[in-house]
Amino acid sequence: MVTVREETRKGPWTEQEDLQLVCTVRLFGERRWDFIAKVSGLNRTGKSCRLRWVNYLHPGLKRGRMSPHEERLILELHARWGNRWSRIARRLPGRTDNEIKNYWRTHMRKKAQERKGNMSLSSSSSSSSLTYQSCYPDTPSIIGTEGQELHGGSGCITSILKGTPPDMDGYPMDQIWMEIEAPEAGFDGGKDHACSSLSGPPPPCTAWDYYCPPEACWKMDDEIKMAPHFGYSEGVGPCF
DNA sequence: AATCGCCTCAACCGCTATACC
DNA sequence: CGGTATAGCGGTTGAGGCGAT
User: Would you say A28 and A175 are in contact if contact means Cβ atoms under 8 Å apart?
Assistant: First the structure.
């Protein structure tokens, strides 16, 4: 009878939602998104939470225009791997697959098409890679070196953020998991408790200002070994 | 000043891969 | 080994912003 069963929220995220999500992720780490969605008090799906985190709230995200270097890198990597956006993204610290995907769609494809139009002759095989490669004939073989080169690219928010590095991998949260497994055990509403401090005085800036993301986060790669550190270990952060 | 069209980007959807039981 | 749950990926869509007319 009571079946309150609120509908899952969709659409743009509010700042408050961001904060709730950030706090919850800080607590539990970047996994069990369904669970995070539940305990955060957000009426979102785990999938949605993950996406929001990965594409917008994740520490270390660069924002703003792609540098020429990144642009070339995208071209190069796309030529090599095709639409493997996530894979390409791993080569571009601070950039998300979604961002790269969008960027490609808007900028590069257009360029490629323009180029294609110009040189409508020749190249009957219309593999996209062929086309955009020709946009940057001078593209050096950068694959393999970008790991270092892109590090600390200008504009990385890491330069202005301070805080506790999030955990990406070995995350000793078992205990907390056990504690939290009892849903109503106090966290219901990360919004009301865990993040209570946020509802009072104005937050520092945006949700991600709570983070100090090591750029190492973005070195997770098939080939590049991830730095074997960063965990929540000490100090969970300003939310608590 | 108002309208239109284009561009950008955040977010959703569906599918696949992987992990876990 | 099979089934289920969870995470991740790539494609697509739609709202909002911005410049051109």
Answer: no
Amino acid at A220: M
Domain of residue A164, CATH code: 1.10.10.60
Contact flag, residue A12 CB and nucleic strand B, below 7 A: yes
A110 touches strand C (CB under 7 A): no
Cα–Cα distance between A209 and A238 in angstroms, integer?
10
- Give, in Å, how far the C1' of C21 lies from the CA of A180: 59
For strand C, the positions having any atom within 7 A of a protein Cβ are 5-13
Average pLDDT by consecutive 10-residue portion of chain A (240 residues)? 58 87 85 85 87 85 79 83 84 85 76 57 38 38 38 33 34 40 39 40 43 41 38 38
Tokens at A206, concatenated: 């945006």
pTM for the model stands at 0.63
Domain range for A129 is 68-149
| Strand C contacts in A 153-212 (CB under 7 A) | none
